[in-house]
Structures are given as C-alpha cells and as structure tokens.
Amino acid sequence: MHTIPTSRAERQLARRRQARRSVALSATSTIVVLGAVAAGIVLSPGWRTVRSTFFSWHYFRAVLSSLPAGFWLDARMFIVVEVVVLALGLTIALVRTLRAPLLFPLRLVSAVFVDVLRGVPLLILLYLIGFGVPALDFSFLPTDETVLGGAALALCYSAYVSEVFRAGIESVHPSQPAAALSLGLTRTQALRHVVLPQAVRRVVPPLLNDFISLTKDVALVSVLGPQEIARIAQINSDLNFNFTPYVAAAAFYLLLTLPLIRVVDHMRGRALTRQNAVVML
Predict the structure, then answer these.
(1) Which of 14, 121, 144, 218 is deepest in the core (most CB within 10 A)?
(2) Quick check: helix, strand or coil at residue 227?
(3) Per residue in 52-74, pLDDT tens?
(4) Where are the domains of the chain?
(5) What is the pTM of this model?
C-alpha cells in the first residue's frame, strides 16, 4: 500500500523518483525501438549493397575535403537571403495591414505578390528568374547565377514570411493600439512601439521554422549552376557511381539545421510555460 507524502520534502522526493522512472522508461523504450529498427535494416537482404552504395567510408573521405567550400557558399547565401526576407516580408505585411484608401494600390500589389509567389513552385521560380532575367539583356541587371538564385529564394520566402508577420500583427488585440493612441502616440508610433514588438515576439518560432526550410532550399540554387554543396555532391556521385557524397552533404546540412531546430523547440517551450503561467494567474 502506497503512502501519500505529506511534507514538502517528501513530495519533492516523490517527484524526483517519478522523474527518474520516467527517464529510465523513455530511455529503455527508445533503445528497444531504435535497436529493432537498426537490426531490421542491418539484417535486410540488401543491406550490404546499401552500405557500399550510401555509406562507403572510402568515398566519404574522398569527398570530405571538397564539401566545406560549397557549404560556406550555402551559409553565405542563407545569411544574406534571410536578412532580405525579414526586411521585405515585414514591409509587405505592414503595407497589407494599412487601411488608408490612398494606399489601396500598394495593398493590391502586395496581395498579388504574395498570392503569386506562394502559388508558384520554388524550382520553377528559380528557372524563371535564373534564365529569364539574363535574357532581358539589361546591363544593370545581375547575371551571376548565385545572385539570381538568391533573389528567387528571397522573393519566394518573403511571400511566406509576410503572412507570418501579418498574422502576428493582427493577433495583437485592438485595445493595445487604441490605448497607445489615447496616451498621445501617433499611429506610426503605436505601430512601432506597441504593436510590432508584441507581434514579432509571437511569431519568432514560426519564423525560425521558415528559416530552417530556407537552409535546405538553398540547395535548389544548384539547378542554375553554382558550385554549392549539393552540386559538389552530385558531381562526385556521378563520377564514382556512388551516393555516399549525398550522405556527406546531408551531414553538413544537419550541422546547420539541428541547432536551429533545438532553438525553436526551446522557444516554444518557454512560450508555453509563460502561457500556462498566465492562465494559472
């Protein structure tokens, strides 16, 4: 028969014991499941072929020295495109939330931009911009494939990010800007100092999710020709008739995406904790 803990120390001890049991059960079940999956893969009839084709240590070492340069190109593109996406997405979201009749043409253009860019697949957009812009033959337009690919990524993701920002802005209760106006702030000041700080804080997790997708979609720029990490892996794979270079490239992407994923999970946990605290109050 279990006794009910009465003192605070006994309750804390009981919670620690329950936490240890939960961790032990989670670890055991995880080991069992992963072990069963690993055994199923290793004992499969084609495992020897898969191991030599996808997990060859010889080809992994051979391609390892050439991947960092391509990965650095991907990282630079990601950073530049992310900054452009944040600025352009926020601008589009602000334009779409303004209700002045004089700004209707801007709202219309912004709505069409978002609808079209979200409706066209990114790969097709890369082809249209990567090959269509140079075909215009204007001297002031860029012709570098990396720049054009980055522009396509920025345009596509700006459409998605603008909707995230707009959702955050519209989630702020109307009483907030109304209270700011009653205190003597102008509409611009209320938007800048009251609405935007709350909106941005609320949409940080979904924004980070979009940027995690962006880190992977940078690889699509390879269809235009830049020697980034996916293109280097493809070249080495075609030369050796082995897919291990793709596995090596995937490992580099994981080095970039896994920390971002952990940051997103941490921020979601903090937001949920704050929300539960407010509800309890």
Answers:
(1) 218
(2) coil
(3) 888 888 889 888 888 888 888 88
(4) 18-54, 57-280
(5) 0.79
